[in-house]
Amino acid sequence: SYSHSKIALGLFAMELHRALSSGKSRAEAVRAAQLSLMRRWPNDPRAWSSFALAGAAGPFNESGKGNEEER
Fold it and tell me: What count of other Cβ atoms lies within 10 Å of the Cβ of residue 64?
């Protein structure tokens, strides 16, 4: 069976992808995914606090790659 952390990781990835696909910036998408996990496990910060954004925070450009000028 999956551990709690693997379930949280999978849900985080799904929520992150959903937020990025809706046009949110990378920073907004990470926050949205964390908030989703916080609502599911409000008393367990291990489920959502270990995720962090590294690199540029803005949106992806049309090619799907990060904007190099943001770095």
Answer: 7
